[in-house]
Amino acid sequence: MPFIELFDETLDINSTENYELSVQLCTDNISFCILDGIRNKYILLRSFTPDNYRHFTPGQLAEVITKDDFLTKNYKKTQIVMPSPRFTMVPAPLFDPGKKEEYFAFNHVISESSQVLVNKISWPDSYLIFTVQKPVLEIAAGFRQSTDPMHHLRPLLYQINQSVKSTAEYYIRAHIESDFFNLIIFNENVLKFCNSFVYRNTSDIIYHIINVFKNLNIRQEETIVLSGYTEMYDDLYSGLAMYIRGVRFAEPAGPFTFSYVFNDTPLHKYINLFTALSCGS
Question: Cα separation of 281 and 275, whole Å?
């Protein structure tokens, strides 16, 4: 099982009730980080992914959690992020909580093995409706001091709000998960496009992005900001740079800092983890 770990020497497993925990939980991976709330500093990052790019079963996810020395501890606060390409956004003035399944069904089929959840988003003022597999949701419910799970777009949009300049003509973000990606486009602080695309390879991602640019008449001189599973000079970065003049990576934004052990880490890969504790209720 591929494994990543970074931890600061000040980390104290016996003081977790003074720490805050952020967990990204899905069948593609389980990653978590710990924030020292007194110093507002991230001091641990761990990430587990399945062997050979397969998926965890719910049982395997539960096993990872129960065997981890930090995930079984109590924390001052816990946020669970659950990525999913299946979502619908409804403007807040139009939202009726009794119709969440009906809203979701406009765009997606609701399977018997999934449950419809809702997140309130302050920017843009809307409700995010998404589904989570029931067995994985049950695992998320086992975390102590946790609030309701949040869709990954909630911290992502919060981070964009902290980063975007009000004078910017366009802000374009591509966030890459293991088998889907989100493309989010703001123009003068107004959301113009937000969608998920399932992909098989890098060429699929580039095709969808360039196609959206053409359909929305966005110039190739604009800048696209990347986050998630991509890095400098990989095939995606190099491929996009052939068509789009500005390609850069997102940076965490919020009232926190990082231990020196994160200095050589591509922080954009875990951007939602680092943002979840700031945007959570």
Answer: 12
Which residues lie closer than 8 Å to 164 by C-beta, 6 or more apart? 171, 186, 189
pTM greater than the 0.85 cutoff? yes
Torsion, Cα 249 4 69 27, to 10 degrees, reads: 70
Could you please report the per-residue DSSP string of 93-138? GG--GGGHHHHHHTTS---TTEEEEEEEETTTTEEEEEEEEHHHHH
169-211 per-position pLDDT tens digit: 899 999 999 999 999 999 988 999 999 999 999 999 999 999 9
CA Rg, the chain, in Å? 19
Whether residue 74 contacts residue 144, with contact meaning beta carbons closer than 8 Å, is answered with: yes
Distance CA 106, CA 95 (A): 14
Report angle CA 58, 64, 66 to the nearest 5 degrees.
Answer: 100
Asked if residue 172 lies in contact with residue 227, where contact means CB atoms within 8 angstroms, the answer is no
CA distance 102 to 57: 29
Are residues 158 and 227 in contact, defined by beta-carbon separation less than 8 angstroms?
A: no
Closest CA to 177 of 33, 9, 49: 49
Rounded Cα gap, residues 72 and 32, in angstroms: 12
Answer yes or no: CATH 3.30.420.260 is held by domain 156-249: yes
What does the alpha-carbon distance between residue 98 and residue 118 come to, in Å, rounded to a whole number? 11
- The Cα 200–Cα 246 span in angstroms is 24
